[in-house]
Amino acid sequence: KGFSSTFTGERRPKGDRVFEALGATDELSSAIGLAGEFSSEKGHTFVDQLHKVQCMLQDVGSNLATPLSSAREAHRRRTSFSEEPVLELEQWIDSYSEQLPPLRAFILPSGGRSSAALHFSRAVCRRAERCVVPLVQAGEADPNVAKYLNRLSDYLFVLARYAAMKEGKEEKIYIKPEP
């Protein structure tokens, strides 16, 4: 009948912001899974990190599916989201960034299948973040969830560049069309 239940048992319309955010997060995990498969075919060592990210996205979903306005303390304890995964992403970003040449121009999603799939994942991640931010602002989700998605998009960008570099693929540079 167009309704679904949150983890707290609350019935909400399927078009509710909670389910929009959950759907976007699920799409993100699927996009990362695809990027992981392409990257695995190329022997990239970061594939285990992508798997860990997918597991963290399950935890993100648990937090989103537990609106704080209807959550009991037991729900909150079970679905809380800490800052630790955010800090881990920042360490990964720093590690890969140190190995990359400086960015001197806008790049287009490119650089081979692994890189392009990671860029696609980044775009899906930004959409998921846009869906989550209103929930955080309304006090319905943990702010660390939004922080995680924000840092995750940066991680995916850096990783896309790293994959292209490791595979010896050229990143396409944005060129402004002549008037």
From TrEMBL:
Keywords: ATP-binding, Nucleotide-binding, Transferase
Catalytic activity: cob(I)alamin-[corrinoid adenosyltransferase] + ATP = apo-[corrinoid adenosyltransferase] + adenosylcob(III)alamin + triphosphate
GO MF, one example: ATP binding
Claim: ATP-binding is one of the keywords in the record: yes
Organism this protein belongs to: Prunella fulvescens (Brown accentor)
Protein name stated in the entry: Corrinoid adenosyltransferase MMAB
Subunit structure and binding partners: Homotrimer.
Lineage: Eukaryota, Metazoa, Chordata, Craniata, Vertebrata
Family that this chain belongs to: Belongs to the Cob(I)alamin adenosyltransferase family.
Domain Cobalamin adenosyltransferase-like: residue ranges: 1-163
Record carries keyword Transmembrane helix: no
General function of this protein: Converts cob(I)alamin to adenosylcobalamin (adenosylcob(III)alamin), a coenzyme for methylmalonyl-CoA mutase, therefore participates in the final step of the vitamin B12 conversion. Generates adenosylcobalamin (AdoCbl) and directly delivers the cofactor to MUT in a transfer that is stimulated by ATP-binding to MMAB and gated by MMAA.
GO BP, one annotated term: cobalamin metabolic process
Entry-linked InterPro entries: CblAdoTrfase-like (IPR016030), CblAdoTrfase-like_sf (IPR036451), PduO-typ (IPR029499)
Pfam families tied to this protein: Cob_adeno_trans (PF01923)
